[in-house]
Design brief:
Radius of gyration: 21 Å
Oligomer: single chain
Distance between the termini: 24 Å
Helix content: 55-70%
Number of helices: 15
Number of strands: 0
Order of helices and strands: HHHHHHHHHHHHHHH
Largest sheet: none
Strand content: under 5%
Structural class: mainly alpha
Number of domains: 1
Shape: globular
Length: about 400
């Protein structure tokens, strides 16, 4: 995909506190910052994998070479199944407290600043730059096929054809969700989240029903809208049921401190279920795919049986993996420190800058390096991860930037 990805809740730690609403307490949730940083890093690996041969769309790609390149596609499939949904859940989790603390209009203003300004800057500035760098290092046939004329020139015509949201489609969708949540709260006459009845953590049966309903809604959407059809510039509209439902679950979870109260034993069991589903349902979906008539897209649509099986797998995996990730980070990464301070402040800037860094590293620095896809992918991420986080740290040192990022 020419865009996957992630951002935070709009209240930038450590200046503003993350809150636990349901229990009436206010405490910082350190592990959520580490988890968000981990998800942003996973986004970088995801796009680097597409660069070097995984199925998907990205600014700059190289043809897969050498053994084991199918592992890159398998890696991105597992990522796609859960990591953005988990990010929407975390974003939704912090929205009720922010709305209560700021009120509706300040909340909306904050979201426009926090999400809208980076979105506009990326759309009109960063995306054309990234596209130009990438296409300057692609074969002429790919440049022409993408609708650009040769020689490639950064002029007005190129600018018009190259603007876009790129991976910040996530930010655009999150902005829509946040506004929807704010309008819903205002329609309820400003009832505060902490004044509502605390909701207990759902039972095994309720989570299982949620998985089935999520799979059914995703299957129906993918049947009506083929995976190849983009809607409003969103490349992953086929996962909309997961993204929206996880965001809503996040807002509901805040009322009962579900991130803090989720039993680790339950998270581990659903993770095991996700692994079992990966060992059974996923191979069954792939084996049953009619590649000749529908292509691999039949895994994600057309009303096929393989699409139904695949949708049941990715819904199960999304829930199980998200629960396990939250439980794991809560247990092992729930205290402050130097790394926490870095990640809590810079994860959003790292997400915004990762496209530029990945394209520069892959198309400029490593394009002439002769390696098979897997080792080249490994070399690239060794450079990309520290370079992106370092760039995020430096960018936030620019005056006034930290007020947005």
């Amino acid at each position: 995909m020419r865009g996957s990805a992630s951002t935070g809740d709009g209240d930038r730690p450590p200046n503003a506190r993350d809150t636990v609403i349901g229990a009436g307490r206010h405490s910082r949730i350190y592990f959520a910052d580490y988890l968000r940083a981990g998800l942003v890093s996973l986004v970088m690996l995801h796009h680097a994998a597409i660069t070097y041969g995984a199925i998907g769309s990205w600014y700059y790609t190289e043809p897969p070479t050498g053994p084991g390149t199918a592992l890159l596609t398998l890696f991105t499939n597992f990522n796609q199944a859960w990591f953005l949904g988990c990010f929407f859940l975390i974003s939704g989790y912090f929205s009720p407290a922010s709305f209560d603390r700021k009120g509706p209009w300040k909340f909306l203003k904050d979201r426009l600043i926090r999400l809208g300004i980076p979105l506009v800057i990326f759309f009109f500035v960063l995306d054309p730059i990234v596209v130009y760098i990438a296409f300057s290092h692609l074969p002429a046939s790919q440049v022409v096929a993408a609708g650009f004329t040769l020689p490639l020139t950064f002029n007005w015509q190129f600018f018009v054809n190259s603007v876009g949201t790129g991976p910040l489609w996530f930010v655009e969708m999150l902005l829509i969700f946040e506004f929807g949540y704010a309008f819903w709260r205002m329609a309820r006459n400003g009832v505060k989240a902490q004044e509502e009845k605390e909701r207990p953590f759902p039972s095994y049966r309720k989570i299982a029903v949620f998985i089935l309903l999520l799979a059914l809604s995703a299957y129906l959407l993918r049947t009506m809208i083929p995976v190849t059809v983009g809607v409003l510039g969103f490349p992953s509209i086929f996962d909309l049921p997961q993204y929206l439902s996880f965001f809503i679950v996040g807002t509901v979870a805040a009322r009962g401190d579900w991130l803090g109260k989720m039993p680790s034993s339950m998270a581990n069991r659903f993770f095991i279920i996700a692994l079992i589903a990966s060992a059974t349902l996923l191979p069954l979906a792939i084996i049953g795919t009619d590649v000749t008539s529908l292509g691999w897209g039949s895994l994600l649509g057309y009303g096929s049986l393989s699409s139904a099986i695949y949708t049941l797998w990715d819904s199960t995996f999304a829930v199980g993996m998200s629960m396990f990730a939250i439980s794991f980070f809560r247990k092992h990464f729930n205290s402050p420190g130097k790394l926490w301070k870095l990640f809590s402040q810079d994860f959003y800037a790292a997400f915004i800058l990762q496209a530029l860094v990945i394209v520069i590293v892959s198309s400029v620095l490593l394009s002439s390096v002769s390696l098979y896809s897997l080792p080249k992918f490994a070399l690239a991420i060794v450079i990309i991860l520290p370079l992106t986080w370092g760039a995020a740290y430096l960018v936030r040192k620019v005056p006034f930037v930290d007020r947005v990022l």
